[in-house]
Structures are given as C-alpha cells and as structure tokens.
DNA sequence: CGCGTTTGACCCGCGC
DNA sequence: GCGCGGGTCAAACGCG
C-alpha cells in the first residue's frame, strides 16, 4: 500500500541540511495569498528529504493545500495571519535568521506547539532544522511591538533528532501521506545553562472525528514557573490497535528504533535505562492498551482512528503540571523500571476522551513525563476561581487536594520538592490561556528550530500581570482557523 | 455534600 | 496456557 493509500511513509533521516529561513520568512511564505500551505520545499529550497516509499509522487508533491483543493474541488482559504497578533509580532520580530531566542509576548504558551503535529500533514512541508541554528551562541531578538515581551528561548545548541510525525490516513485526504519523520533539534546536554536538558516527545494520533481537535494542552505555565523547560523529541501518530494491526506494529517498531536511537542523545548516559523505560512506556503502550473505550464506545472496538499521543518530559516540581485542562485522576500504578508511580488522569470534560498519565523519571525526580493520549474536543476550561466549592484543586487543572500528602509516598524515594500551589501561579488560573495555537496553525510547526524550545521561567514570570498581555481573542483566532481549515471539508471539529 | 484522590482488584494484550 | 505488566475500574476515603 502506498503512502497515498494511507500507509506510512518514512522520512526519518538523511536530509541535506538546508539553510534556515527566519520565522519571518516562513511566515511570509505562509502569508502568501492563496497559498497558505506552501510546500516546504519553497521555503527550504535546499531541503532534500529522502522518501523511502513515495517515489511515485515525490517529484510532483505540491502543497497540502493544493492537493486538498485538487481532491475536494475547492481552494483552501488562506489563513489570516495578519490577525494573529501577537503571533504576528512574534514572527515579525524575528528578523534575525536562526535566532535561537525570540522575544514573545507574555501569554504565549509553548503548549500549542504540542498541537502542531496534526497540521503537518504533508510531507512536502517538512522542514529540517537548519544547521545554522546549531552550535552557535544564542541570540536575543527583541520584539519591536511588545513592551512586555518575554524571551522564548529556542535552543540553539542542538543535536538533530528524528522528529516523527505519523499522520493518519484521513478518509477525505487519503492521498496524503500519513507519516512524516523529520528532524528537530534537541538539546545538547552540556550547553543548557539552565539545567538538565529535558526531553519531550510527541506522539500523535488522530481521532476519527476530530482530525485536528482543540489544543491538547492548553498551556504549561505552571511548569515554567518551576524551572521547567521542555524539549520536544518527536511527534508521531500511532494507530491504535485493531485495524491494520500488523502494519501498526511495523510502524511502531520503526519509530521506536528511531527514538531509541536519538532520544537518548539527550539524556545522560546513565539514564539510558530509564529512557528505555520511558520510551517503552511512551509508545508501545498504545498497542498494548486495552481496547479503546470499550465501555464508552462510539469509538469503541471498531475504532479506526488514531489517537494523538503527546509525550512531554519537563523538569518541574509539580507532580501534575498545569496544562490548562482539568483532569481527574483515576488510577495510579508503579510501572516497571521506575520506582515512582505513574498517575492516570482523564479529562474532566464529559465528552472528552483525552487521558494522560504522569510520572517522574526514575533517576531524576524532577523530571516529569507527561503523556497525553487523545485530542481535546473542547477548549481549555475557564478558570474556576472563586467558584462554588472553591476547591483549590479544581482551579483550571488537576491539583490533588492532598498532593503533599499523597506525594509523601514518593518522598521516601526522594525529598519532596517545594511545590507552589497551582492557584498561586501567575498563569495557572487564568484559563483559557492563550497559547501558540495560532503559531501552530499558521505553520510554526514547520519551523526547524521551534519544536525544541526552552522557556526560562524567570522570564516567563517576570511580569506580575502577564495575562494582561494575553491575546484576548486567541480562541477566536483559533476557532477561525479551524473553521477555515476544516469546515468546508465537512469535518466535525 | 460535592468533588477528586486513593488503592486494590480486575482486565487485557503480549511474550514465552 | 500462563505469567507479566500496563491500564482501568470503582468503592472507600478525605478535604474544604
């Protein structure tokens, strides 16, 4: 089965490092009228991505937009990136190519970056990282229009790692490759001035109903407040068990190999074992997982979709970092290879099937590995400040009422870190938080040096009132984009 | 009392 | 077939 039939294509390695365009350049490309989804090759003319299986179309690959238009008979409207302020400012400010440090407005959350995988549905949009963004000293770029701009550090000392994006064979777009693997940079452990390099990996699967979905993660401000910085290793879509199981297994295997090989580059040697555990946990869990929602059903046993899985590793003192959504813990288990228990959470939204599990690294207790499974079909819930009940733990996200007590069990393995109540964090209770959804939607996911980023909590919270700068209509922009992208396709978003 | 956590039992898939 | 291990359930529990 060719990739155009929904099979995966592999593009994991061996690309010729192109020069890196600045975000501005990319944005400019994206803003091109009538061509909001330019093939990456136009942006990265030097891009030379090997295609193992799609030789048939490799020469004629056009942008997603074009192909979609060709397939469905109408043209995809261009995204109005002009209205994406401060995103706009964010990009426009990035006038220095390869700048590892980009000043952005407060309120921007890195979380939206996690939402990008679904958008990268065209292999032609794959943008390999630029070598120019590596091994060089960080540069700071000031935003010209934001008084309260905060630096968002895009790591510049990076190792290339495979960045797998395994996209599902959308029925309507069955001629679109479903898996893409490209490289994103990751931290060089020794050069991180802040702390131990973190690794975050994304695994994504698409839900059948919601090809894109709402932001899986609203924000990670809370983590950022705790010496958190995040690395994104990979984004990949993994088809859940059932149909094409054999093929899935193959895909998994392939991807695992990639990650095993590269993810560990970020980790300390002595943590390899731990990483293996994490990786095992992160990926094969899907196939091993119990039949999906057997009790609840719609998707049920005949689920043909993919579930988006995003795996983040970050350093934070929070056991369950605020990501903007509310979660209910439904289980906890000690998994093999990690003395720290893994906690299982479900999104508290009745109609949302998103789950996540959180665990601390076996060797690094500050390392929190959060695996999101699924895509939220709703926006992040509003803050519940001063709400009835007034339970602190309910403010915006899960904050175990007895977090401190609960973690006492963990304390026997490691001293309890100082934890700041979520509610006391500048962003935590300010949901829905504006995130980088717009960035993602407008193509930032294609930026070579964006997926791996580092946030300096000090900068993040420099402002006492960061939310004042949050883009007030972020959700509208997001919704608008969603509509413009999918409404015409008849996709229920 | 409401809401969320805790925790042991159970389910399920996988590998041997 | 069996054991292992990850994931889930659901009653009990606890906090405000």
UniProtKB/TrEMBL annotation:
Composition bias (Acidic residues) maps to 236-282
Q: What's a single GO MF annotation on this record?
A: sequence-specific DNA binding
List cellular component terms (GO).
nucleus
Q: Which UniProt keywords apply?
A: DNA-binding, Nucleus, Transcription, Transcription regulation
Checking InterPro entries in the record gives:
WRKY_dom, WRKY_plant
Source organism of this protein record: Arabidopsis suecica
SMART domains, per this entry?
WRKY
Organism classification: Eukaryota, Viridiplantae, Streptophyta, Embryophyta, Tracheophyta
User: WRKY domain spans which residues?
Assistant: 316-381
Region (Disordered) residue spans: 44-64, 236-306, 372-425
> Which Pfam families does this UniProt record tie to the protein?
WRKY (PF03106)
Where in the cell does this protein reside?
Nucleus
What ranges does the record list as Basic and acidic residues composition bias?
406-416
The principal location of this protein is nucleus
Query: Which intervals carry biased composition (Polar residues)?
Result: 294-306, 385-405
Q: What is this protein called?
A: WRKY domain
